Each structure stands twice: as structure tokens, then as C-alpha cells.
């Protein structure tokens, strides 16, 4: 089955700086890579996703890059703000034909 | 739509008791997933349904766990008997068409087994 590794587990950045979270996956057939944000006491919420036919996707301050050869993808958040503080999860297809395998999560802390 | 609705939000029970978690998916979504979240293991897929039919339950940890979806608007996850190691946050999520589309998660049920 799919194995998703996520780094770092905790990331602290100054407000206004950029944050980068990286994930690797094992199944070369995987073709869909979402990122979820989880705030305290809530369920994860999709913030951006990318499919294997593109190498980069951007949505305002958030971008995701995909390197299929190396089997890794990254989340980039620019101009970080206090409301970006949360736990972020990457995922890839796995756990059955329709399930997702999630990384262990990155706790992003935005320092004022 | 109010989103995916789970109940209860918190459940504290004694070891050996039966626990039933409930989920109402978003109307029109054909897929329903049950996940478990712990610090040690992260988010794990337990089971999922397509059009009310269980498709893959390979993530269900033991026979003590069972899940049903009697209709398109309701699913349950039951643990009988419960054990302290079952303590976790259980999430239900629904998607409009499979795993390659946005999953909408409920608020979760925090289960504590003492």
C-alpha cells in the first residue's frame, strides 16, 4: 500500500515569512495529492490539491509543487499570518481504491 | 448544507461498554469514510462505503469494530466491547465521487475509554 512521509513534524516561522512542508510517497501510480489544514477541535479541511499532470498549482498565498520522478510534493505558504497556525496534512491515494493515506502532520506555528 | 454532522462530539465510557458513533454525510455525496486520529498513528482510514455498500474494511483494527450504512444519510461505527486503546478522535468524511475529490470532514467524535 501507499506510504506517505511528512516533514517536519513541527515548524515555527515568523509572521510574514514563508513556510514549506514536504512529503514523499511510495506508489509511483499515485496521481492525486491533496493538502488538508486542521484547526484545533475541527476536522481537516482541504486547502489545495494537485494532480499528476501538472507540476505546480497556486492559490493566492498557497502553492503546491509536485515532482513525480522523485515522488515528492511540497506545500508552500508565503506571507504567513497568525491564522495560518494549524496542523497541515499531506495525503496520497491509498487505503483501498478510494481512500487516502495521510502523512503524520506538521504543526505550523506562526510567531508574531 | 450543514456539512458532515457527527454525534456525539465527546464520549466517555468505561472499558467493556458498547459505543456507537453516528454520522450524517452531505446530501448527494456517494462516498462515506470513517477515519481514526491518534497522536501515535495519525489519521487512519478504517472503512468506507460507496452508495451505502461497504467497499473496503481492511483498516478496521479488530472484530470489535463494525460499521453500517443503512441509508444514504446515516452511518454508524460501533465498538463492542470498548478498550482504553480505542481512545481517539473518530472522523467521518464524505465525497461526491470517490477518493480523488475533496473530502468533507465532520467535527469528529472524541472517544475516551476509561
Commentary on this structure:
The complex is a heterodimer of chains A (112) and B (114). Chain A has 112 residues and is an all-beta fold. Chain A is built from no helices and eleven strands. In chain A, strands 2, 4, 5, 9, 10 and 11 form a six-stranded mixed beta sheet that branches. In chain A, a hairpin with a 6-residue loop joins β9 (86-93) and β10. The relative contact order of chain A is 0.34. Chain B has strands spanning 5-7, 10-13, 19-24, 31-38, 42-50, 53-56, 65-71, 74-79, 88-95, 104-105, 109-113. Chain B has no helices and eleven strands. Chain B has 114 residues and is an all-beta fold. In chain B, 37% of the residues are buried. Chain B starts with a strand and ends with a strand.
Over the alpha carbons, how many angstroms does the gyration radius of chain B reach? 13 Å
**What radius of gyration of chain A results from the CA coordinates?**
13 Å
Measured by DSSP, the beta-strand proportion of chain A falls in: over 45%
User: Sheet with the most strands of chain B?
Assistant: 7 strands, mixed
Terminal CA distance of chain B: 36 Å
